[in-house]
Amino acid sequence: MGRQQARRTVQVRRGIGTELQAQFYSIVEAGIGLARGLHDCPWALPLGKGTLKMSHVGYRVADPMERPAQSLTESQRFTRPVTGTVMPIAGGTIEVVPVRLDAELAAVSELAQCLSDGERLRAGRFVFERDRRRFIVGRARLRLCLASRLGVQPDAVEFDYGPRGKPRLSRIFADTDLRFNISHSEDVAVYAFSNGREIGVDVEAVREMRDADEIAARFFSRREYEAYLALDSRDRPLGFFNCWTRKEAFIKALGEGLHYPLDRFDVSLAPGEPARILRVEDMPGEQCGWTLHSFMPGPGLAGAVVVRQSSHDMPSVAASGKTPKCVIAHR
To answer: pLDDT digit string (tens) for 183-195?
Structure first.
C-alpha cells in the first residue's frame, strides 16, 4: 500500500481531519512486525547490527492462553472465558487482558457464532483473510470477556458508541457501570476493564522506523520531543513507542481521539522511568484527574493504560512513580 493510499485509509477509518495526523498513523501502522520467541526480561529485539533493550518500569501482563491448559483443543483455548492482570490503582483496580488473535480456522468459525449480524457483515468486507480473521477473533473474545463479567451470553452483549466513536456498552447494561477499551497490534489484542471510570489502552510493536525522528518532531509536544532527542540512539525506538502508546491511551480514555491536540499534554517516555502524565494544558499531571500505567503484553510490545481518577483519589498517586505489585485475578 502506498503512503497516499494508506493516508486515505486511515482518514476514513478514524475520521481524522488533519492530514499530518493521518500521515502519522499511516506511517506507524504500516508494516509493524511482532517479535516472537523472546522470553527473557529485559527483552531484546534484533535490530540491524545491534539489539534494542526492552528495559521497562511497569507491569508485566501475560496472555491467559499462555497459562497451563491441560487437554484443551485449539477451539477451547480461544473460546473459554479469560481473566487478566489486575492493576491496583487509587481507590480500586483495573484489569488488563492481552489475547492472541492467530486462531486456526475451526476456532475462527466457532468464534464467529458469537458475533452480531452487523459484525459478521463487517467481517465479510475485509479484503484480506488475515484481517478478517483478526477482526472475528478480536471481537468475539471481547464479547466473551464482557459476557463473563456481565453474567450474560456473548451474543447478548450490545454496544454503543460515543460522539467520536469510542465503544461502550449499551444502555441496557448501565447499572453495571463497566467500562472497557481495546487496542491491537498484529496478532495481539489488549482489552482494559474498569468499574465506573473511563479508561483507554494502547499497544504497539516496538521497532526502528526510518522516519521516527521526523514524526516525533511533528506530533510530540515540545517537552516530549526534547526528552526524545536526549535519549541514546539505541533507546529511541522504545522511547518513541512509549510516548505514542501513552498519548494514544490518554486520548482514547478521553473519548476524543485525535480531535484532542497532541501538543496539549506531556507524558514521560524515557525507558526505565515510571509512566506519568506530566502536564495537561496548563495543569500539572498530578492534578489532571487521570492516572497512567505502562505494561508489557508480550515480547517486543509496549502498552499503556490511562484511567480516570475517582473524586476522592489522592492527586499525588499519578505522580508518585511507584509501581504496585500485580496480582492475577481468578474469576
So the answer is: 999 999 999 999 9
Report how far residue 130's alpha carbon sits from residue 103's, in angstroms, rounded to the nearest whole number: 10
What tens digit of pLDDT does each residue of 213-223 get?
999 999 999 99
Amino acid occupying residue 285: G
106: number of Cβ within 10 Å:
12
- Quickly tell me which residue has 475485509 as its cell: 126
For 55-91, the pLDDT digits (tens) are 444 555 555 445 444 556 666 667 666 667 888 887 7
Q: How many CB atoms lie within 10 A of CB 270?
A: 16
Tell which residue, 70, 92, 69, 93, has the closest CA to residue 82.
Answer: 69
Cell of 324: 504496585
Domain 39-101+178-328, CATH number (from 3.50.50.60, 3.40.50.300, 3.40.630.30, 3.90.470.20): 3.90.470.20
